[in-house]
Known about the structure:
Blueprint: H1 2-31, H2 33-36, H3 45-56, E1 62-67, H4 71-82, E2 90-96, E3 107-109, E4 115-117, H5 128-137, E5 141-145, E6 148-153, E7 159-163, H6 175-190, H7 200-225, H8 246-257, E8 272-276, H9 280-290, E9 297-299, E10 301-307, E11 312-317, E12 323-328, E13 331-334, H10 338-343, E14 345-346, H11 352-359, E15 366-375, E16 387-389, E17 399-401, E18 417-426, H12 438-451, E19 460-468, H13 479-492, E20 495-497, H14 511-527, H15 537-541, E21 554-560, E22 575-579, E23 592-595, H16 601-612, E24 620-625, H17 637-645, E25 653-657, H18 667-675, H19 687-695, E26 704-706, E27 712-715, H20 716-719, H21 724-732, H22 741-755
Parallel strand pairs: 1-2, 1-13, 2-9, 6-16, 10-14, 13-20, 21-22, 21-24, 22-23
Antiparallel strand pairs: 3-4, 5-8, 6-7, 10-11, 11-12, 15-18, 15-19, 16-17, 17-18, 24-27, 25-26
Helix pairs in contact: 4-14, 5-9, 6-7, 16-21, 16-22
Amino acid sequence: xxTRYRLVFVLFTTVVIVLxxxxxxxxxxxxxxxxxxGRAPSVPNYIQTRREHEKQSFHRHHRxxxxxxGPTALGAAKRLYDLGQGKNNSVITILEELGKPGGLAxxxxxxxxxxxxxxxxxxxxxxxxxxxxxxxxxxxxxxxRRGSFAFMKGSDDTRRFIPYPVQNNIHVMDKVDQQxxxxxxxxxxxxxxxxxxxxxxxxxxxxFGEGLTDVFMRKYNRxxxxxxxxxxxxxxxxxxxxxxxxxxxxxxxxxxxxGTDAKDSDWGPNRFFRxxxxxxxxxxxxxxxxxxxxxxxxxxxxxxxxxxxxxxxTVEAGTGVKTHYSLAYDTLISTAPLDVFTSLLQxxxxxxxxxxxxxxxxxxxxxxxxxxxxxxxxPRILTGKSWVxxxxxxxxxxRVTMFSNYSDDHVPKPGEYWxxxxxxxxxxxxxxxxxxxxxxxxxxxxxxxxxxxxxxxDMVVSKHYRRLDHGYPVPSLKRDMILDTIQPWLxxxxxxxxxxxxxxxxxxxxxxxxxxQGVEAVDxxxxxVPELTYPDPNLANxxxxxxxxxxxxxxxxxxxxxENLDWMKPYANHTLIYTKGNELGPxxxxxxxxxxxxxxxxxxAYLTHITTYYDRLANVTVxxxxxxxxxxxxxxxxxxxxxxxxGVPCRINRRRYTxxxxxxxxxxxLDEDKKKNVPLLKANRTLGEVYQDLWGxxxxxxxxxxxxxxxxxxxxxxxxxxxxxxxxxxxxxxSTYSNQExxxxxxxxxxxxxxx
Length: 756
């Protein structure tokens, strides 16, 4: 009997302990009471023991949490998905405070039918991976050539549109400002400074001289950044600011003085851009989100605290009555503003307070978006313009976008309505709250647009407003020191803070950069592949980054000028176009669309593809000209794939090619080339000499078989018969002129390259 009572007592005591512990754990974890009191939530010993066991278990799922759902977050999520994560190897959770993805790249349609973005976003890219994800996500795009200007008052009190970049187009200024700017440029040309600038103002003076810096640079930068240029560093500049060519400027001024039209300079990575036909910038990221498993996303869920010792996030969920829960992670990717994010952290690490103090010293602007929906038609003065900069103080905005020029979908009825979107920068610490109110800024914006003659007040039919607490991440003098301290500290704790404000580097804060920061963070913690974009902005911005691709079984590579491409519609999802013509964009969506210099005929395009993707080629690549298989090509596109797999790249001309000198072209062809204004540039080397240089041995005496018209298919193994250096050397022969004889040499070599 006593034994039975003892057993009952032990069981009862055990139940009480378990229930009590469970209730305490539930309270701590569900309601975050420990976090709210500024300490780590208490975790029962058996939970800790279980977690330690799980950490040591090879088969335990890796828990990845992403805070936010803008471009950076979606870049990370897309990369995880492409790498097969989230199945049996990891658990992925995306926490978004709002009700839809997009973040600072979202869009909204007002009750009058006007669509608005969160500021100006256009798509141009330094990354192949980014391009191809967006191509798959969004089927229809508008392609535009940038038309950007500064609208500013000169010394003669006349306002002018000066093409962007201003420093390359001072010939448009009034004579006083023009000569003042030119004098400063001449002075720095004669006496260039080799001293490293201490701040952005010194950099401006070194690159543009006192005149241009005073006429435009200081005024505009003060307006957009809201701080003095002496309070900013110069490390961020990179490709963001064009350095002028003084000789070109002088030539333009002479042309204007002589009464001739000087061509305006065109510069910058975004001189060509694209924009979705429908649903604005936000539509891009909603489409990317739809490519991912829906159960990864948790909307209307706000992070309120993060215990980085326990790796526990406290989340507030819901839109009405709030609930709270805790979420464990192994790796955390945060796209929240770094100053806000660090304020949420809790730890026993004594250095946490230092990190929070440093993050609080980061500088940012507040941005106000004022959208003006208008009736009627876009005035002639704004036709062909994408956006305009405003350095003068007689308007509140620093930039106005002709938003209806981007897409007809931005207005209720194209042709009857149009729209302007104004961006206004407010200092991080500002006074005069009445001025920065919604009503005041809308009123001031409309008055300035009327003053400039862009609109009349009676044209306004819709007014949109949004304030962004974090508008621009200012590259302050202390920024890099702060980031170089905080980011390594976070990484040690398995946290990657990336994105426009998560990384706080404006120089890599466009949509392509932000997306790839997420992609590269994933590659870093999964495979230890070094990041590029965040740690080395200048290198990332200096080239097209092609090191990540979405693998295809087969791919069509098309050398294009201005030919009709309708015949490739059935294969568009597997087609990469290398265009050398003047079309702004493809007639319909392809897998890829790359713009090249018009040199080296089709050989240059083919060799560009091989040298760029040598280690990442499709299993079969079909190389074709855009002339719809003219000449002796096979007339069925799929035939190239099947025959390449059999080791037959093209329709072979059985007559061996034995003429190793210069090519003897028919006079008819030479005359036709002249008529097209692309006369043949004769080579300094013979066909045999180029063969000797490429293969390292004399050309075969018996000649070589060949195929005409440069249409062929090749497996990866065929192309890899030669090392990358072979193709790079061949490319060097065809990189100077549009119709050079060496390109015809390469056309005759392809069969020899792929099969012998």
